[in-house]
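Backbone-to-sequence.
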């Protein structure tokens, strides 16, 4: 009889011990799941801060033309500074010298120019890219001189033409003002190095020219056609000097209601649904316990 009581006591103790251990393990799992779920909900998706700084470069077309075209010598330096996420302040400074020979005259233009304006980036970059598809506007100003080298007097004869007459007359203190509409692209090829290309439609606003000789070429404006409209382009390489980063307009992958695990990996919809169901089931089981 006594042995039977002892056996019953031992069996009850073992069952009680297993019950306590099982309850403790379930509570530990629930606490771990709750902590992980809260952490996953709090982790924000990765952000890519926007870099702000100064970009300096040169027009490759003008530099290379100076090597293969003996009648031209010039250069252009370009720079822009990022004002906002989309807006850039731009300045372009250059020098042109061109010796031009036509059928009835020859002239030389020599001077400097400055363009200032803005570019607006139409392209929406992903992650840390900094490419541009942009439109912009410029105000241009040039000071230069024109030299009439020679000319041929007009002849009404189809068989006899007049010989050229050397003039070598210089007209100094000339100037011109114009506006430009610009469209172009710019891409980061590696590290902080960018390459770009732009097309320009120019409109002459005002000019100072000699009384007896027309401005046929204006530095920075290029050749002046009939009327006040011109065209141009440039091909640039530039280097970006970063000054600071801004989180105000940082790029974030646009995913609605996305959640991430402890390693920063996005949780898919099915996995998220399973986690929510387990969380709800654990809460119900805990509420049913006495």
């Amino acid at each position: 009889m006594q042995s039977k009581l002892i056996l019953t006591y031992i069996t009850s103790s073992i069952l009680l011990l297993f019950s306590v251990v099982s309850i403790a393990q379930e509570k530990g799992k629930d606490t771990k799941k709750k902590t992980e779920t809260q952490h996953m909900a709090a982790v924000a998706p990765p952000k890519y801060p926007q870099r702000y700084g100064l970009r300096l470069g040169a027009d490759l077309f003008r530099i290379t033309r100076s090597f293969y075209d003996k009648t031209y010598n010039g250069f252009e330096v370009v720079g822009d500074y990022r004002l906002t996420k989309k807006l850039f302040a731009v300045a372009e400074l250059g020098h042109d010298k061109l010796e031009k020979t036509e059928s009835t005259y020859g002239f030389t233009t020599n001077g400097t120019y400055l363009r200032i304006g803005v570019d607006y980036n139409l392209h929406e970059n992903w992650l840390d890219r900094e490419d541009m598809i942009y439109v912009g506007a410029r105000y241009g100003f040039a000071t230069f001189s024109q030299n009439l080298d020679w000319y041929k007097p007009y002849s009404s004869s189809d068989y006899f033409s007049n010989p050229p007459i050397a003039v070598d007359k210089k007209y100094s203190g000339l100037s011109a003002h114009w506006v430009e509409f610009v469209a172009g692209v710019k891409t980061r090829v590696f590290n902080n190095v960018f390459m770009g290309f732009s097309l320009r439609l120019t409109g002459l606003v005002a000019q100072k020219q000699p009384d007896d000789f027309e401005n046929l070429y204006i530095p920075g404006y290029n050749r002046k056609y009939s009327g006040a409209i011109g065209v141009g382009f440039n091909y640039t390489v530039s280097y970006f000097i970063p000054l600071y980063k801004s989180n105000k307009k940082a790029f974030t992958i646009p995913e609605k209601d996305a959640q991430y695990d402890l390693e920063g990996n996005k949780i898919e919809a099915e996995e998220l649904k399973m986690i929510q169901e387990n969380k709800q089931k654990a809460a119900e089981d805990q509420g049913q316990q006495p």
